[in-house]
Amino acid sequence: MRRPTQHTRRPAAPGWTHPYTGLPGIAVFYNDGGHGDGNQPPVPSPADLANRAPQTPATPPGPQPVIDKETGVAMTQDRFNRIMTRQYEKSRNAAYREMAESLGLTFDPETFDLEAFKATLKEGHEARQQVLTDEQRRTEELNKVQQAVQAEKAKAEQERAAIQAERRALAREQALTRLGALDQVDEQGNVTAPNLQDALAMLERDLRDTPDADATALTTAAEALKKRRPELFGAPTAPQTLPPAPSGGPAGGNAPRQPASTKDALQKAARKRAEAMGLRHDNAA
């Protein structure tokens, strides 16, 4: 028989055991963070903060006045305006003096009259414009005359070139006509064979390198053209002959018909062939 297990009564262990026990543990967990000597200043209450006097912010220093280096006096706005006005007057007088000297006038700041000076400038400008207008008018008239002369010269050159072209064409036509190049016309006056026109075109092509050829060169070229194309100068056209046929017959005709071979002719031809090959002799039986 087994002995029963003896159970002892023990307190139940919690899930987390406090590491500090006793008075030291209380001191650790309930420490307010203060000093134990009592020297910490008290915290002011809201009433104390409301009763305190407001603190005024410190006033920043203002801008320092500008000191004139020449006089050592502070530069005020009025002094600055007077200086700028004086400088403006000096610059304007310098400009007026330069303009007056360029026009050959004298300039005195004490007796200077701006309105009179403006009137003088206006009169000078109008005088220059008048002179310029006269020069422009004369220049335009001269240009018109030159353009008219150039137009007349160009027109004369064109007329001269046209006359020369007509003379060349007439000389070439006469040279070809003397050699017999004439257009053939039917009863109604219509050109049926423009021989002269074709000859002129060919002669123009032959003389394209020497358009201003003299009479001798023109005649030589026309004669060479007549030899090359005699049909244009009235020569009858040579009949065209076809080349002979390969068989020796007339061109365009049928080959001659070979006569039919007979038995004797075949034997004779075979005998001659055998004799030529040395297979048969005349004294053979």
Automatic annotation (TrEMBL):
<protein>
    <submittedName>
        <fullName>Putative Vegetative cell wall protein gp1 (Hydroxyproline-rich glycoprotein 1)</fullName>
    </submittedName>
</protein>
<feature type="coiled-coil region">
    <location>
        <begin position="139"/>
        <end position="173"/>
    </location>
</feature>
<keyword id="KW-0175">Coiled coil</keyword>
<feature type="region of interest" description="Disordered">
    <location>
        <begin position="1"/>
        <end position="68"/>
    </location>
</feature>
<keyword id="KW-0614">Plasmid</keyword>
<feature type="compositionally biased region" description="Basic residues">
    <location>
        <begin position="1"/>
        <end position="10"/>
    </location>
</feature>
<feature type="region of interest" description="Disordered">
    <location>
        <begin position="211"/>
        <end position="285"/>
    </location>
</feature>
<feature type="compositionally biased region" description="Low complexity">
    <location>
        <begin position="213"/>
        <end position="223"/>
    </location>
</feature>
<feature type="compositionally biased region" description="Basic and acidic residues">
    <location>
        <begin position="272"/>
        <end position="285"/>
    </location>
</feature>
